[in-house]
Amino acid sequence: MNQYKLDKSAIKFNQGSIVVLTAAAFLFSLPWLVAFTAAVMLVGTIFPKAGLFKLIYMHAAKPLGIIKPDVVEEDNTPHQFAQGLGGVFLAVSFLVLRIKLIVLGWVLALIVLALAFINLTVNFCLGCFIYFQLNKHGIFHPKPESRSENA
């Protein structure tokens, strides 16, 4: 596995932002805020340097000393996958809310909120776990023996 520098504090800031915005969307019944959060997450997944939460962390929270960096040697790919998965769930949540399936829409949003909160507080990332399981079974990177069998 390739090693990269990863700021765990940036990930925590991202998770905290997701929790706060999704909770506010639910509490104040603001489906547009679900759509906004989904868009921020999906843009940040596709274009990591353009992620709004990351930009706020890098240009405000970190320089002001509100949050201290926690840089580790770790691949960011599982975290990006998890963020993309959460963004898709929130996008579907918004679409379902728009067609007036209110309970289902909010359940989907609350799943994202709960998983981001769990990751924030106890450092368990379900999206990362799913990524590792898919990778283990050759979904993202075929196992070497699979490649030779298909050659």
Topology:
Blueprint lengths: L4 E3 H20 L3 H16 L5 H10 L9 E3 L3 H22 L3 H21 L3 H11 L7 H7 L1
Antiparallel strand pairs: 1-2
Describe the structure.
The chain is mostly helical. The protein has one domain. The protein has 7 helices and 2 strands. The chain has a two-stranded antiparallel ribbon with strand order 1-2. Helix 1 runs antiparallel to helix 2 and helix 1 packs antiparallel against helix 5. The longest helix has 22 residues. It starts with a strand and ends with a helix.
Short summary:
Helix content is 71%, strand content 4%.
Number of domains: 1
Note the main sheet: 2 strands, antiparallel
Radius of gyration: 17 Å
Please report which band the strand proportion falls in: under 5%, 5-15%, 15-25%, 25-35%, 35-45% or over 45%: under 5%
Order of helices and strands: EHHHEHHHH
Number of helices: 7
How far is the first residue's CA from the last residue's CA?
23 Å
- Strand line-up across the major sheet: 1-2
Task: Estimate the helix proportion, in percent.
Answer: over 70%
The average pLDDT value, as a whole number, equals 91
Tell me the structural class: mainly alpha
Number of strands: 2
In terms of per-residue confidence, which ranges show pLDDT below 50 for 5 or more consecutive residues?
A: 146-151
Q: Give the overall silhouette.
A: globular
